[in-house]
Amino acid sequence: MKKQPVVITDAARSQADQLRSREIRYVTMMMVRALCLILGGVLISLRVPLLPLWLVLCAAAMVFLPWAAVLIANDRPPKSKAERAADAAAREDVRRALIQSTAQPVPEPVTIDAEVVTESRQQT
C-alpha cells in the first residue's frame, strides 16, 4: 500500500516569504506616492479644470500613503482560528492559575532566632 503525502496547507508562510510580500506592498505604495507627485506637477503645467481639487487629492495621497505603507509593512498576517483558539486557551490557563494561587492560603514565614556566642580566647 502506498503512503499518502503529508498535506501542509495549514502551515504558516515562512518569515522570509512574509517579509518579501510586505516589502513589495511597501515599494508599490511608495511608487504610487511618487506618481502622485509627478501627476501634481503635470496637472499644474497643463492647467486642467478643477486644478485645486486635483492638487488636494494628490497632496492627500502623498501624506496618507507613507503612513499606510509603514503600517501595512510592519503588520503580520492575521492569526488563524487555531492560533486564536490556542491564545484563548493559554489566557484561560493563566486566569485559572491566578485564581487558584489567590484561593490557597499563604503559609506564614518561619523565623528562627539565634544568638551569636563568641568564646574568649584568653581564659583568665
Annotation keywords:
124 residues, mainly alpha, 3 helices, elongated
Can you give a write-up of this model?
The protein is mainly alpha-helical. 64% of the residues lie in helices and 0% in strands. The chain has 3 helices and no strands. Helix 1 packs antiparallel against helix 2 (51-74).
| Count of alpha and pi helical runs | 3
Sheet having the most strands: none
How does the overall form come out from the CA principal axes? elongated
Low-confidence stretches: none
Mean pLDDT score: 84
Q: Approximately how much helix is present in the residues? A: 55-70%
Q: What oligomeric state do the depicted chains represent? A: single chain
Strand fraction equals: under 5%
Number of strands: 0
Would you list the SSEs in sequence order as H and E?
HHH
Q: Compute the CA-based radius of gyration.
A: 34 Å
The class by helix and strand makeup works out as mainly alpha
Distance between the termini: 99 Å
Reconstruct the topology from this structure:
Layout: H1 15-46, H2 51-74, H3 81-103
Short description:
This protein has 124 residues and is mostly helical. Helix content is 64%, strand content 0%.
